[in-house]
Amino acid sequence: MDPITGLLIGAIGLALAATATVVFWHQILEWGESNIFPWFERHLPTIAPYVRKAFSRVDNVAAPLRRAIKEAWDRVSQYLLKQVVELNRKTTSNTWVQQVTSWVIDVSGYNNKPVVKQITTETEVPYDNLPEDVRKAFLRRQQTSFSQDVTEIRKQEMALVN
């Protein structure tokens, strides 16, 4: 695997893990404001300031993390034009083939001129390691092929982070 591919895969993996938590932080704060804080103020007023302080401390971590994730995605998206993940079931086993196709801008070409490269990787994935939505669709509808535009999903998630 060339270095740019490894860098992109690592950055995307990190962004995915952190994004899931951070995307929902505004909803968690709203829930705290509308439900948790008023409940403690009514029923346990002596503890209410500590609850607010706990949320404040988490927010001190979540807000910079949200900014860092957005900055990381902005940087990755300068080079990662599109990434599509396809899953196809092998006909002779309960193993699936995962094909990840990425279109990236490579600036290491002749005279450092940007060149769009298509990079495709394939790995075998046991059924148990498939995403839950893929397993459900397979069991319910015998769907044996799936495709997702990862970059589009990330763009939608980043819109929620703002």
Task: Please explain how this structure is put together.
The protein is α+β, with helices and mostly antiparallel strands and 162 residues long. It is 58% helix and 24% strand. It has a 4-stranded antiparallel sheet. Helix 1 runs antiparallel to helix 3 (48-79), helix 1 packs across helix 5 (150-161) and helix 2 runs antiparallel to helix 3 (48-79). It is flat, with a radius of gyration of 21 Å. It starts with a helix and ends with a helix. The relative contact order is 0.15. The model has no long low-confidence stretch (mean pLDDT 81).
Structural topology:
Blueprint (H helix, E strand, L loop, with lengths): L2 H21 L1 H19 L4 H32 E10 L5 E12 L8 E12 L5 H10 L3 E5 H12 L1
Antiparallel strand pairs: 1-2, 1-4, 2-3
Helix pairs in contact: 1-3, 1-5, 2-3, 3-5
